[in-house]
């Protein structure tokens, strides 16, 4: 049985994962949400104005009232900057699984932040919410995300061929998953 608790703050060695706040808008625009390259990596729209970001934040913040809604701002402890986001979505209450997504501004890539955030969200999902399975995917060619997924010990499940049509070509979507028993066995 799932024990939903909503988006709770999580601290790691270098990060704070917390609910989004309206004051995150400038960091979001500066570091990732207006960057076409970052947003295309996880098929999200590009936001270029404070008004667009406020509308998005309205949706996030309103959704925090639901106990089965999980979306965190990733904040670098040292600087206090909101450097990205991580979320659990496609929550399936009947079958006890969900999918994870994450995005970081390119300035914060290759520092281990995404891996650190994913690992703590895995712990939250398996040990607090009691999910049985967590899945994750990446677009073909997204080596950085594939690296995060491998470091977190997900198991490759398969490829959805020609899943995305972008820039006049088809791109595969690669799927991975982790079961709670695998997480317990390989706990970080």
From TrEMBL:
Instruction: Provide this UniProt record's keywords sorted from A to Z.
Output: Acyltransferase, Transferase
A GO molecular function term, named singly, is: acyltransferase activity
- The question of whether Transcription regulation is a record keyword is answered with no
Task: Kindly give the Pfam families that the UniProt entry links to this protein.
Answer: Acetyltransf_3
Q: What is its EC number?
A: 2.3.-.-
Q: What class of enzyme is it?
A: transferase
User: In its keyword annotation, does this UniProt entry include Transferase?
Assistant: yes
InterPro entries the record matches: Acyl_CoA_acyltransferase (IPR016181), GNAT_dom (IPR000182), N-acetyltransferase (IPR051531)
Looking at the record, the residues that make up the N-acetyltransferase domain are 36-181
**PANTHER family registered for this protein in UniProt:** GNAT FAMILY, PUTATIVE (AFU_ORTHOLOGUE AFUA_3G00765)-RELATED-RELATED (PTHR43792)
Q: Which protein is depicted?
A: GNAT family N-acetyltransferase
């Amino acid at each position: 049985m799932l024990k939903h608790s909503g988006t709770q703050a999580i601290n790691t060695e270098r990060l704070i994962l917390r609910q989004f706040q309206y004051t995150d808008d400038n960091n979001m625009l500066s570091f990732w949400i207006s960057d076409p390259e970052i947003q295309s990596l996880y098929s999200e729209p590009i936001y270029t104005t404070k008004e667009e970001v406020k509308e998005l934040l309205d949706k996030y913040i309103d959704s925090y009232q639901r106990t089965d809604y999980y979306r965190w701002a990733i904040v670098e402890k040292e600087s206090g900057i909101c450097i990205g986001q991580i979320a659990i979505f496609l929550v399936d209450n009947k079958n006890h699984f969900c999918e994870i997504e994450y995005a970081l501004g390119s300035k914060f890539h290759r520092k281990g932040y995404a891996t650190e955030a994913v690992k703590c969200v895995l712990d939250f999902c398996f040990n607090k919410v009691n999910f049985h399975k967590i899945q994750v995917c990446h677009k073909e060619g997204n080596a950085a995300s594939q690296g995060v997924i491998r470091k977190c010990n997900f198991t490759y499940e398969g490829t959805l061929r020609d899943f995305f049509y972008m820039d006049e070509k088809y791109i595969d979507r690669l799927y991975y998953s982790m079961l709670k028993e695998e997480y317990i066995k390989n706990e970080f």
